[in-house]
Amino acid sequence: MACYLTTGKHMSIYLSVFTVLALLAVTAPVALMFGFGGATAARSSVLPLRWFGKTYIALVRGVPDIAFFLFFVIALDQGIEYLRHKALCPDWSEPIRQGNDFVVCQAAKMPLGNAPQWVHETYGFSLAVLTFAIVFGAFAANVLFGAMRAVPRTQLETAEAYGMTRRQTFWRVLVPQMWVYALPGLSNLWMVLIKATPLLFLLGVEDIVYWARELGGTKTSRFTDYPHGDWRMWYFLALLVFYLIFTRVSEVVLGRLMNRLTRGQATAGGEAQRKAAV
Amino acid sequence: MKTLILTTAALALTAGMALADGHAKTIRMGTEGAYPPYNFINDAGEVDGFERELGDELCARAELTCEWVTNEWDSIIPNLVSGNYDTIIAGMSITDERDEVIDFTQNYTLPDPSAYLALSADADLAGGVIAAQTNTIQAAFIADTGATLVEFATPEETIAAVKNGEADAVLADKAFLAPIEADDADLIFLEQEELIGGGVGMGLRESDGELRAKFDAAIQSMKDDGSLNALLTKWEIGGAF
């Protein structure tokens, strides 16, 4: 049993757990940044910027995730290669589109054709992070946009009365207070993001669901030292437990964060905390 | 500063030219990794099987540096034409439909009979439910018969469908089904077999004629000195050249 659970293949699934965790660790802050940018743009007083923010939110939120993932990543990859091709191989005479084929010169390949496999994997991983960040950034932008409007108007008026500029009001009064309104929405997004990680395999990153399926599949005695029947159910059960534990831990942490953010705020929660402390 | 930028640019350019040289290129071999004995992931987590050995030998003969990548069967052709890897070596039978989209080398297996695997010998092949993997010659074959076709994305699921009664039988390459039949007392082969497909070949982009010629020559040399037959026997894939 111990031997079985430590085969090279099982090492791959343990490693892919870290891939998933790394993806979340990188994607969450990047998506939040995208969201913050989107929300700020959407409520900007500059018209084109406002249009940009609103279009971003509406467009990305309206497209099914899976379609976005399939289309955007291929388009992004080919776009990068096209630009590199134009820059690096100016004297290339053959067309880039030859029937079904997408052909660029060797030097324009992203990553380079002779790069080791880990570079290809890292590149795929970065594309995944970017795509996840854009999708979840749009949802986060909508949440933050709403949260910014939920901050009581009187707070902002008071700030203005003290003679703060727009910028000062935004950074010193609006932003610190909006998180408490944004957190329920953001925590929802975090949960959805955790559960969306199996979409990784669509992008060619071998995640835990891929390895669970591969390891659980029937193995005949000719091709492995550990033949077994269809064990996918057990591997998927392990995945289920993993995700449940992970989301439960997230809930606890987010609950504490909510408590911390509520302190001293002009909300019902903040009022309750104040009364309890007295 | 300006000179620095210029030198870097010049360096990048020369490096680019050096890389454009065909010999420096690594050939990425795309496979599914879920279809033993053709290709599968072994206990160490690496690609293994008949095609792994064949591919490594072909690359050695053609003096190419090769690297193995796995990809879902469903999207294996689209990812080849968009350039994510350079060859498909995944037990893919040569058919006219596929030949319109990609190019094939000469076949490296003879047309292998496809067999039916079922729970009982009296499974209804004419009007029953038959499982097959999506986008395979077997799926296309069943679609043309009177039987109802159920398709699955992976070979594993086609077997599971028969075992849980969702399908009456599964149609797949006999070399793939034989080890499964040997291990499982419940499953038996039906007498009827179908001879479909034109043998298995390597798939390449249509614009990659040079690479195709190299692999073609390597396969021919393996056919000539009998080493291909030795591999076919070793992995128990039917038919010798």
- The tally of helices of chain A reads 10
The fraction of residues assigned to DSSP E strands of chain A is under 5%
- What is the name of the CATH topology of chain A? MetI-like fold
Q: What does the main sheet of chain B amount to?
A: 5 strands, mixed
Beta-strand content of chain B = 15-25%
CATH architecture of chain A: Orthogonal Bundle
Task: Please count the beta strands of chain A (DSSP E, at least 2 residues each).
Answer: 2
Give an account of the 3D structure.
In chain A, helix 5 crosses helix 7 (166-196). Chain A has a two-stranded antiparallel ribbon with strand order 1-2. Chain A is built from 10 helices and 2 strands, in the order ααααββαααααα. Chain A has one domain: MetI-like (MetI-like fold, Orthogonal Bundle), CATH 1.10.3720.10. The N and C termini of chain A lie far apart (58 Å). Chain A is mainly α. Chain B has helices spanning 2-20, 50-61, 76-81, 96-101, 137-144, 155-163, 174-183, 209-224, 227-234, and strands spanning 26-31, 34-35, 39-41, 47-48, 65-70, 87-88, 103-104, 114-118, 129-133, 148-152, 169-173, 188-194, 203-204. The model of chain B is unreliable at 1-23 (pLDDT under 50). Chain B is 39% helix and 22% strand. In chain B, the strands form 3 sheets. In chain B, strands 5-1-6-13-7 form a 5-stranded mixed beta sheet. Chain B has a 5-stranded mixed beta sheet with strand order 10-9-11-8-12, sandwiched between helices. A 3-stranded antiparallel beta sheet of chain B has the order 2-3-4, with helices on one face. Chain B contains 9 helices and 13 strands. Chain B is an alpha/beta fold and 241 residues long. The N and C termini of chain B lie far apart (65 Å). The chains are: A mainly alpha (278), B alpha/beta (241). At the A-B interface, helix 2, helix 4 and strand 2 of A face helix 1, strand 5, helix 6 and helix 7 of B.
